[in-house]
Prior knowledge:
The complex is a heterodimer of chains A (155) and B (303). Chain A is mainly beta and 155 residues long.
Amino acid sequence: MENREPRKELQVSAIQNGTVIDHIPAKSLFQVLRILHLEGSANQILFGTNLDSKKYGKKGIIKVADKYFKIEEINKIALVAPTATLTVIKNYQIIEKKKVEIPDEIQQIVKCFNPLCITNHEKISTRFHVVDKKDLKLLCHYCEKIMERDEMVFL
Amino acid sequence: MMKNRSLVSITDFTREEYIRILDLAEEFESHPIQNLLQGYVIATLFFEPSTRTRLSFESAVSRLGGKIIGFSDSASSSVSKGESLKDTILTVSRYVDLIVMRHPKEGSARFASEVSPVPIINAGDGANQHPTQCLLDLYSIRKTQGKPDGISIAFVGDLKYGRTVHSLVIALCQFGATFHLVSPIELKLPGVFKDYIEKHHLHYFEYTELDEIIPKADIIYMTRIQQERFSDPIEYERVRNVYNLNSAMLRDTKKNLKILHPLPRVAEISEDVDDTPQAYYFDQVENGVYVRQALLTSILGVK
């Protein structure tokens, strides 16, 4: 038997035009789909998770055809997928590559951890100021309590 | 300019704006009866009862010739029919020029200030903020010490949950002070406020006993250990009577020492302290009216 190289194959097939969100932590894939409101989208969406990654062990990837995200939109996923990268594809070519960044302000995605906060009692969209991007600490705009990463519950 | 601005949190106004309010309060102390709010209607919406704060605001409005409408607990408002806070604010704002609001939920005043077309003064939102109390504390400090800055202040009691303590620590950091923090281990000042003190290059010292700080302090700020903050009644029993300031402890104090308390007091200050020259807590209550007169007239743009 001759030695054959292992067959190289994309685990999630390529798209002609659109956006590839790669290096998503495997456990956060479905959360990212939700945060970007892709669940009800009419675009073609390919996604995979628990894929092998040299850098992260297991990762998730999402490919959305014919859709380009605004940076504020994509930065919303930074809370659950700080390692994610974004690639803009046009005609199978990479046009632009960028990393997500934690925004200065976060709206709606996270629930306030303080049971006495008004946002947990009235119909009010949550709003937080990011006071520490490294350790991810969020200051509630309303009750002024600071929430840490392990206290966050996603809406 | 403070005109038409809400006051929700102690961090909403600058140091200069606070000084302006304190100066104005001084004016009202000399001339408390001024007909500046004639024709104005002020709402006092108290979604939870607070007799002292409500009466103080109502006294301030009355002395300025304004009228007051409102409710003193949520049972007598449409909240009991299930109305949202937003709807209550939007409705009441059509009747009045300014809303004074106390609400048990934290962040309620910020939210109200965002939906209301008229300014909101936060008269307490749960354990979060109570900025008018903080201003009257500052006024009392400045008045008794001749200046608001560089004082040595001892906070005593519940430093963990006491929002008046938290607000005053933040406000005094704008002026500079030395902080002596006296509390049981389980009720220590939260780290975020200690970090705030350090960030302003100021110093704090922590104690569990009250005695040793008495001779050092310019101001002793006593607080009640609030039963409602404890889920465990045994824990409350252990700390409830841990501090008791009595007149015998006040023999060797600085001449300028004054004792402040946001009231109501329970056992932390003995009644025999009331007749000492250091007792200031009832004067502090009176100062609250002048400070609220200053705030109301500034925000309504008549002063």
